[in-house]
Amino acid sequence: MTAAPRGAARGSPPLLSYVLHRYDWSESSLIVELFTRAQGRLVVVAKGAKRPTSQLRPVLLPFQRLHAQLGKIPADDRGEVQLLRQAEWAGGAPLLGPAALFPGLYLNELLLKLLARQDPHPVLFDAYADTLTALAAATEGDDGPVLRAFELLLLREMGVLPELGLVTLTLQVVDATAAYTLRAEQGLVPAATGGVPGFMVISSITDRHGYPIVGVHDGSTTDATPLRQRFGGWYVTGTSGLAKHAGNVYSTKLSHEVTDKQAYRTQIDMTTESARTDLVGRFDPSPYLSAQSDIVALMVLVHQTVVHNLITAVHESAPDAVFEDSMTRANGRDTTARGTSGQSAARLRRDVDRLVRAMLFVGEAPFSGTVKGTTRYAADFAKSGLRDARGRSLRDLDLERRLFKYPLSFLIYSESFNALPDLAKDEVYRQLRGVLAGTDPSTEFTHLAAADRSAILEILAATKPDFARVR
Prior knowledge:
Elements: E1 15-24, E2 30-36, E3 40-46, E4 66-70, E5 81-89, H1 98-114, H2 122-137, H3 144-158, E6 180-183, E7 187-190, E8 202-206, E9 212-220, E10 239-240, H4 261-267, H5 295-330, H6 343-359, E11 371-372, H7 377-383, H8 415-418, H9 422-436, H10 450-463
Parallel strand pairs: 3-5
Antiparallel strand pairs: 1-2, 1-4, 2-3, 4-5, 6-7, 8-9, 10-11
Helix pairs in contact: 1-2, 1-3, 2-3, 5-6, 6-9
């Protein structure tokens, strides 16, 4: 316990405070920004604090806990500036070492810029004190988690942090086994969508009323997901060779009746209905456009959700990279390798890398026999594709060894891809050309045979005019 400052005015209790910032007011006085527990951020005048004999001079230092006594404000004075009558060291705060000074100043800057004056935040005050203690004890380079924790609490105290127990856009309860990303514009979003608002095809177990049993699922489905783990909770029609999927199966129990969910996942056989070619007896299909749920259409849907999410991620990272690139060129720097330097360009390249890998079906799960749907979807889908002089299209389906005959995503023709800034599209084209021409030595593209690469290059040259501008 620390004592109150000597001579404190009766009826005016001292304020537990920290100095956030100070600057000269006159030859002998200072303006001081205080962060107080009881009244929030205050601005005070410390008269005579610069004089060598002033009691205030040695105590008005950052990162030191103080007892501050304020003078009375005249009845007609409605300004924010108050008079600092007295301040004494309150003890209990360790000194920050050299490595912790900049993180400490960063905390002060956050409070100065983001907190309104005279708005108390006692929880934040206590967290600030604890954070200073943690920074004093942290080794150089280990202050990141400490600062991130304070930032989250600051956002919550300001009322701008979304509820971290819910997905912001859908208000669904977060899954403790899944990963999520906190984004400034969209709040909490599933990491499975690339950290942007997007779509997912989830494979789960549903109860007998069709509701998913939370916590019993195989996660977000991608082209790399083995077929046996796909389409749990979905109706699926068609055949898939020797492989079996998890569609058309539901639990006889209700969600709340499943107590040990992980054990239940191993007990239920999800492949018993994977050879259905119709849904007779499963439900009444009369209110729907079709009584079919074509497996080929669902597999294409999986690919679409993944690639569209990754295109969205490139859209989000591109503007900063474009600005960075324009500043580089405006300053007369080398422009022969556009967008290859700087933090924003690095983020764009990272997002483009992920997009290119998905568009080239890196890690695609192999087929075990012919996949055949129950509608005209496959024929109609292929019919709408752009074709080269030899009649080849990126919409041509394989369905025996893999999903597409020419494994480059047909979404390269989509509106969302075409709307990418040229800087981003050129980076995609540059990486694609490197892989398809064989100049990219990465081993993750070994699934592309020489004939595949040649055919894709020729299709792009004939059907994607802007691809030719990048060499």
